[in-house]
């Protein structure tokens, strides 16, 4: 149903016609849910017997005209994939296997429980079969702990956080005491240490000295990004007030690094060469582009992005960075780190491994740029930046002029940001763009919604859940774009467990 006319004159008659149609179909109109303008929508909630249906009218405001499109109930199938009385936490990205048949998860029942969680597993999206991939040795409330598992986009391999193996009450799991471990799914139980760790001076080039976290594969499966906290700086800060353990972003690339441990299990060798790729400082100059925290990053594009001059930057990271405004307030802005092809070259006097009094330095050729300059900066719930496949847009959360958290997009070249969503309610958590870059899926209003990035057209694709059972974390798209996986709590007697749900359609993104 498509209609157009002068603003304010066509809406009421058209609404009445729609409601008449609804009555003819013997569907009872319960209530208006919301009405708004500006690339928005008004929708109303319908009920027929016990089945909830959602109808949407999309409104694009153009001077003198109003365009309305009413979507019939969307053909979305929802399936509860897991049922065991335990947690099934999926990570914020890359949880599907390359063929879309498996979803990897850890057994946390709460996001904060990595240190006390000992199992990584996967579930088959077609049969519901579960397979345990890895269990920690000597697991206790103090560690080692595992979690935040992701699938390689090109191999049958999962990568996850693993706490340091000697964890106990005096050395518990923590931000500076974790590393990245992989499992080939055909060889469960056989850990592959990805990033090397060496906390013993003089340190080892290609190894880091703390904890890597939230690992993310590049689209070709060759490079891996992560956030990082440094154990050596953490310990130094206990006796030197001018020093702090500042969160950074790092990258690891193929290349074995050998570290001698001596049996302490504090250190480990790794199959990858790891470096920091962001520069941070304890005391950023007010009003400058210096940051004291770099975090929650993403790879830009499938293979980078195009610069304004038409040349290609093949590998780059977008990250959130905390700056100080001219009045000393912390503001989170979007930054880009352009990466060279070779991350193993050191700058003179700035060792990649750091020293006993300095954190790891960035390699030669890394260029760090600030691309947003806003008054309030990035706002809303914790989230990781995301991009579309061609790398032309970085997605993030910020408040609109009504104070509502929305999705925004900005070019890696630093052009004016564009508002993507205009919902009357805030985005409630992290999000992911579809494989073709046309859509973004996210939790809002205790539901899962999808928005067409180019137009702002938005659809609610689940019912609205009660607060206690609302979606948790980021919806994840399957590689073919036909399925979305997400977490939400399911109540059983006096307990709640995080379960994995699937939303499927018969065709690729025909929402």
UniProtKB/TrEMBL annotation:
It holds the Pfam family DUF3748. It comes from the Bacteria. SUPFAM superfamilies: Tricorn protease domain 2. Belongs to the TolB family. This is WD40-like Beta Propeller Repeat. It comes from Parapedobacter koreensis.
């Amino acid at each position: 149903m498509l209609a157009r006319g002068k603003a304010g004159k066509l809406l009421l008659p058209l609404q009445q016609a729609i409601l008449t149609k609804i009555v003819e179909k013997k569907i009872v109109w319960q209530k208006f849910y919301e009405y708004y303008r500006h690339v928005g929508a008004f929708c109303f909630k319908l009920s027929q017997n016990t089945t909830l249906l959602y109808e949407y009218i999309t409104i694009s405001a153009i001077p003198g005209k109003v365009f309305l499109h009413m979507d019939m109930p969307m053909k979305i199938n929802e399936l509860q994939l897991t049922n065991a009385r335990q947690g099934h936490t999926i990570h914020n990205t890359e949880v599907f296997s390359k063929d879309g048949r498996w979803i990897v998860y850890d057994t946390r029942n709460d996001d904060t429980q990595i240190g006390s969680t000992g199992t990584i597993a996967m579930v088959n999206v077609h049969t519901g079969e579960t397979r345990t991939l890895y269990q920690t040795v000597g697991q206790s409330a103090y560690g080692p702990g595992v979690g935040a598992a992701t699938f390689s986009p090109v191999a049958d391999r999962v990568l996850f956080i693993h706490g340091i193996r000697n964890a106990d009450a005096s050395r518990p799991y923590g931000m500076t005491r974790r590393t990245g471990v992989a499992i080939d799914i055909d060889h469960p139980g056989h850990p592959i240490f990805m990033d090397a760790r060496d906390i013993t001076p003089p340190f080892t080039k290609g190894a880091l000295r703390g904890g890597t976290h939230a690992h993310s594969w590049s689209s070709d499966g060759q490079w891996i990004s992560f956030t990082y906290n440094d154990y050596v700086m953490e310990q130094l800060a206990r006796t030197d007030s001018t020093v702090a353990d500042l969160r950074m972003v790092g990258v690891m690339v193929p290349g074995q690094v050998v570290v001698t441990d001596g049996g302490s299990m504090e250190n480990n060798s790794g199959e990858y060469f790891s470096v920091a790729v962001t520069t941070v400082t304890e005391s950023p100059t007010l009003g400058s582009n210096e940051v004291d925290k770099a975090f929650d990053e993403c790879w830009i594009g499938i293979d980078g992005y195009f610069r304004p001059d038409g040349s290609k930057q093949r590998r780059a990271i977008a990250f959130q960075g905390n700056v100080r405004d001219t009045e000393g307030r912390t503001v989170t802005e979007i930054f880009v780190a352009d990466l060279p092809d070779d991350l193993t070259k050191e700058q003179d006097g700035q060792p990649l491994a750091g020293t006993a009094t300095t954190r790891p330095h960035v390699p030669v050729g890394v260029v760090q740029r600030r691309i947003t300059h806003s008054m309030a900066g990035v706002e809303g719930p914790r989230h990781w930046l995301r991009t579309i496949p061609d790398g032309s847009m970085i997605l993030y959360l910020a408040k609109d002029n009504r104070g509502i958290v929305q999705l925004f997009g900005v070019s890696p070249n630093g052009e004016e940001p564009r508002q993507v969503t205009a919902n009357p309610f805030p985005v409630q958590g992290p999000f992911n763009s579809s494989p073709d870059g046309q859509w973004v899926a996210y939790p809002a209003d205790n539901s899962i919604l999808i928005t067409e990035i180019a137009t702002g057209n938005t659809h609610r694709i689940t019912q609205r859940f009660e607060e206690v059972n609302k979606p948790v974390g980021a919806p994840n798209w399957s590689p073919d774009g036909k399925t979305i996986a997400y977490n939400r709590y399911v109540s059983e007697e006096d307990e709640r467990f995080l379960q994995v749900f699937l939303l499927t359609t018969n065709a690729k993104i025909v929402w």
